[in-house]
Amino acid sequence: RWFAERAVFGTYEGIHHELRADIRVQLQAERPDGQAMQGLLDRARQDGEAARHPVARELAALLVSELEAWAEQGNGEQPSAQPSATAGVSAAAGALFPELAESYPAAADARERVELLLDHCRARIDPRPDGYNPHDLHESAINLLSVGIKVGTDAYKSDTGARLFMKKSADLQRLLQQVP
Predict the structure, then answer these.
(1) Which positions ≥6 away from 65 have C-beta within 8 Å?
(2) Which whole-number Å values give the CA distances from 39 to 4, 19, 33, 62, 168, in the listed order?
């Protein structure tokens, strides 16, 4: 169960890799571009709709609210409200992402919280591998490992996504080594 809860993040759940990269570009800028930020907000909202796990939906909503606050700060406006900064993350999200739970409420501003969310919420595999059931994470983990077997056995016959799964397999190996 411990493994399954964590294996879905960065595989079936997470931020779209192109959205992450584009947000990182804005983080590198001295001041965010207002038009680019609006586009990022629209994409982040759409990306949040793809989240199926409750913690993934929570983190997607936090990303949208922090991007909104950051965009307001970039325009010289005083952010309307920052409930996410004072509330932090839920107990469920804190259990899966303990470093985020500790650092998120202590972040100085929305820009820093956006960066924390990107640092702790990895990109999902796009397109998502088959076999994900957000209501049965144990089954989802078994299905994910079955995809790995399929990738390994058919790798020479067709494009099975072997390269993508190999990237994920290193994360899964590290995760297995951390199981309490």
Answers:
(1) 83, 84
(2) 33, 10, 10, 17, 29
Task: State pLDDT tens for residues 59-74.
Answer: 999 999 999 999 998 6
Give start and end residues of each alpha helix (H) in the chain: 2-7, 17-28, 34-50, 54-74, 83-87, 91-96, 98-103, 110-120, 137-154, 162-178
Q: Is the pTM of this model over 0.90?
A: no
CB 60 within 8 A of CB 45: no
Q: pLDDT by residue (tens digit) across 91-108?
A: 999 999 999 999 999 999
- CA 118, 63, 6 angle in degrees (round to 5)? 55
- Rounded to whole angstroms, the Cα distance separating 180 from 167 reads 23
